[in-house]
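Internal ticket #5521
Category: modeling
Description: The requester needs a full-assembly model to guide mutagenesis choices. All entity lines are attached below as received. Residue total reported by intake: 264.
Assigned to: D.W.
Attached entities:
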Amino acid sequence: MFNSATLVELIKMSLSQAQIDQFLTEGYTTVPHFFNEDEVAAMQIEVARWIDTGMFRDVSTNPEVRQNYQLIPLYSRSPLFKALPFAPKVINAVGNLIGHPVIKILDQSFYKPPQSGMGTSWHTDNAYFKLQDPLRGTAMWIAIHDGDIANGTLKVAPRAFNEDFPHTRDPASDHHIHTELDEARAVHCELEAGGVVFFCFGTPHATGNNLSNESRVGVGIHFVNRDYTSPLQEKHWEQTVISGERTGENFADEVRATLVQADS
Ligand SMILES: O=C(O)CCC(=O)C(=O)O
């Protein structure tokens, strides 16, 4: 059962019908302030630890000019981010969008240093995951720092998730693939830290260069409805069951522990 604070948070953070409808028709929706102030502070402390201890890897093929630092996976390196998908508001929101049973298949982070941070090229997650129904998988992209056009916040192409986007190797990255997309179709998801973008596996998305004087970090967590995956896909992905009976207290505990440790 949830305690009353969790219940209040859950009600406050439930997606509106308009957000669910936007996801189903446009392939994405944004939720400002999905994470509260303490949660944002804890996530920023954790991400600073990853940066300071050199845990990110630069995937840029032209690192003298621009850098695009990636850390993947997160759950094995961070109790905070291991617990985050089990926060009741996350289970609830993701379940509302793609239906239960929800499994988490991937988590990762991208760090863009000031001025020379490089964007990630246009792609769909389904170019990697190949889910038959692109609406049965969603990414939850978290703005760890305020994201705007100048620092290359996430951009998406609405109403495109049923289109076919051929992908080829991205020469700017040492392992990614990319697709062509007319920039006129882009919606820039400008969000304060703690805001979230949910976008389905068929939705083309990208980030821009960080031209600002501050670092910017995003975290992406990928979920699917297990009833829509094949055994072959399951063999290749992480299989963390999210739906089900849980106390829901783990993320809150990890947030507190991170803040207390940073204070001591
Ligand atoms: O932050 C980025 O540069 C890329 C984000 C992304 O493509 C994702 O999280 O799926």
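Resolution: model delivered.
Comment from assignee: The helical segments are 4-13, 17-26, 37-52, 79-83, 88-98, 126-129, 231-236, 250-263.
Ticket closed.
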